[in-house]
Amino acid sequence: MDLHALIRAEAPLAEQQRALTEPVLTALVDHGVHRLIAPKRYGGAELGLPQWSREVQELSRADASTGWTAMTTTISSSLAWYLPVDAADEVFGDPRALIAGTAAPLGKAVETDGGYRVTGRWGWGSAVTHASWVIGGTFTPVGPRLAVYPRSDVTIHDTWHAAGLRATSSHEFSLTDAFLPSRRAVWPIGSTPGIEGPITVFPYFSFLAAGVASVCLGVARRAIDEIEALAVEKTPQYAATRLAEQTGVQVELALMEARLSSATAFLHDTLSVAWDHALNGEAAPDPVKARLRLACSFASGEATDVTQKAFAAGGGSSVFESSALQRCLRDAHVAAQHTVVSRRMLETYSMLKLGLGPDMTRF
């Protein structure tokens, strides 16, 4: 069974147990999915970000929770570029190790010999239950840092009881008075990376926005797949023709395809432009970053609307747990709630275009 077929087959069980199944986790690692954008030194594929986005979309088309987990763990593995080489060797030396966590600087660090003592609690820890090392954004005396802790230091709290993306295991996690060596804390903006590469030139905080948008697009593509398959089989109660033969459904399906294809193309175009700057060793100018984030938020919104329309077109058939359409609906809405694709991002784009000087520090 190929990877995507395995993911589809295991998705209902993963949904029930609120965690990816062991066969899927093993297959993801076997295929190197968790290191798609990591350095080759650590078993990574060093994919360009436009190609990575397409991979995330296809994994999410098979199952949103799996695509989300692949997206977040690959972003976490990108820290291998930024850490000092001795720290990266420690964390990423095992090519099968999963790295997960949260960037928000909710840890509080107190300086001590060789590093810090840290206490904190974080939310949205997608895949931390499967991780060997956990990233927790930490505020240190010298500013915010992405800090990496061994899994043994971390306590996971079973808090992920959510409407969608149920199998991502995005629980809260905490640590208390844990020692953090200075070498395992880095800020990816304005610092010298341990390993040079195009990815270290790309605007760091746009990784996650592009990833979330890619998951949303993949879910919407699956929703269209599902309604197309249902339409040729289903004749609604009290109707004389199949859904496929009804003009209203035909028009709706065409509009769904046009909207999803347009949003996908917009994301690919803007991501490619920003990536070309990185390949040339150039920092992306603010207009490029703003347009990319516009595309990310637009893609997430369009994908959610398309998924809603596919669900509605399925009628009563969509509401049952046996229907992938109801899972697509829930997953798309939860993914699109992420702050990095919020509609507030649209304000930043317009403010820049209108010369109003928005804050671009986290773009």
Q: How does this structure look, described?
A:
This protein has 363 residues and is an alpha+beta fold. The chain has two domains: 3-186, Butyryl-CoA Dehydrogenase, subunit A, domain 2 (Beta Barrel); 202-354, Butyryl-CoA Dehydrogenase, subunit A, domain 3 (Up-down Bundle), CATH 1.20.140.10. Helix content is 47%, strand content 16%. It has a seven-stranded mixed beta sheet with strand order 5-6-2-1-3-4-7. Strand 3 and strand 4 form a beta hairpin. Helix 3 (49-62) runs antiparallel to helix 4 and helix 6 (206-231) runs parallel beside helix 8 (286-313). It is globular, with a radius of gyration of 21 Å. The model has no long low-confidence stretch (mean pLDDT 97). This is Acyl-CoA dehydrogenase. Residues 15-73 form the Acyl-CoA dehydrogenase/oxidase N-terminal domain. Keywords: Oxidoreductase. One of its GO terms (molecular function) is flavin adenine dinucleotide binding. Residues 211-342 form the Acyl-CoA dehydrogenase C-terminal domain.
Name a few traits of the molecule:
363 residues; 10 helices; 16% strand; alpha+beta; Butyryl-CoA Dehydrogenase, subunit A, domain 2; seven-stranded mixed beta sheet; Butyryl-CoA Dehydrogenase, subunit A, domain 3; single chain; 7 strands
